[in-house]
Amino acid sequence: MSIKTKFLISFLAVLLQSTVWATDYFVHPSLGNDANTGLSKEQAFKTLSRASTIALQAGDRLFLASNQEYQTGLQLINVSGTKENPIVISTINWDITEEETKPATINFKGESYGILIQDCSYIEVSKIALTANGFFSADAAQTMRCGIMITNKNESLMKHISIKDVQIFDVFYENLAFKRGKEEVKTANGTQKYGWGIRIIDKNPNNLIEDIEIKNCSINSVSHTGIKLTGNSKNISNITIADNSIEQTGGPGIQMSEVKNVHVYKNNVSYSGSDDDSRKWGRGSGLWTWGSSHVLIEKNKFMYANGPGDSAGAHIDFNCDNVVLQYNISAYNAGGFCEILGNNYNCSYRYNISINDGHRVKGVNGAFQEGKIFWLSGFQGEQRKRKGPVNSYFYNNTIYSDSTVVAKIAIDNTSNGILIANNIFYLEGPSKAVLGDQYKPDKLTGDLAKNVFFKNNLFLNKDDWPKEIGIKDIAPIIGNPEFAKKGGLEAKDYIPENLKLILNKGIQISLLPNDSVGLLQSLEPKKDILGNPIQGNPSLGAIEPKIN
Asked: Where in the sequence is the domain holding 354, given as residue range(s)?
């Protein structure tokens, strides 16, 4: 046998090994029949219960009929594709003359999950709608109603799950007219049964879930959280959450616990903590992290968060490290703008714009926390001694509040390492020092936070930073930056027109004393919130004005 022949045989063997004999399956809720083969539109299955029994292989595709409603959920358990040949779940036009592909709708009313992805890898779900408004008969064994659940029971590793162009709406565990007790909203995360948008849960610290993307999805009106990640010992990692619209959630828009390496960008989150339905929780920040590492949150909009506690635009709960919020717009959030709780390390808010955040008043309409534009808390659990965040960097933000808002500020004296520089505090109304009030108020001891660098911030008026805080700007700048359109909701509305006051008047940001880490993304970003380059000394606030 010649060398050429041997090479050809070897090449063909490798080619055969890599070839995937993929199969397409079809499901139609009115034209199908579960006795069919499912291998063509003419032989389509009828139900997702039947489709859930298919032993899907790498490269297989499961197609649901456009503009049709399915009455049961879909379960993907112990099936996996490959990097080159993922398993695909999507909508298809049944009639080739259809010009628009309207997503198939999975109505999983009365069931736990619309789509369950368990012990699977290389799965791609797209162009499907999910809804579940209550139940037909109560099932005590059920604990939730969830649009898409990604979870790891047996396999030690799950990876590459893609959720794109999915719509989730009206997901409630309870039926219409159910009313939650008044005390439920005071619990840390809710204690009852709720509806959720997309959840990732991995309770086993030895199991890993990684390489997950949730992109271009719409989540509207669920009774608790829109997108929620729940790990153990940071066993959920490499997550992308981008270009999603999340509205009217009864709880937070996005929440993550015990995760690492997460990128959250270009999402629009509005009306989190909604109470427009008595089945909703009625409390929630646009986004919050807990026990998480290396999280970059950028270029998002967080607006109109509601609730008697927390309910900031985006906040960093305790036990996190290396969480950076940059280039975000935060507006009209009841709880506030910057909230960093205890035992957090090297976290930052920079180059963000805040508009009328923190308008909530403690004691009014059931509120048990003050709203705050700036809050460093010592809370790290009810049974733990208070310990403020370590090495918090707050710079080049633009904070605007009109005359209707009392701008409240709280800094726990156990905080260690605080940098506040190059910010614009445009406060038309009064400002006030308050105590942190996470379950029980911080103690007023007379001690001050340690390792503070507070310099070179612009204030509209000389009394805008309350003296009672105990720390003060050692070189403040007083004046009016003359915003293009104060009160607007776009970043461009806060372009300063008083260039003489702010242009290149910022200082370079350096490491705080005893900090050898800094920020994961470097202390000196190259661009501002509008994408304008930062050259030389930065300007004050979040926008680097262009010079004609």
From this structure: 311-548
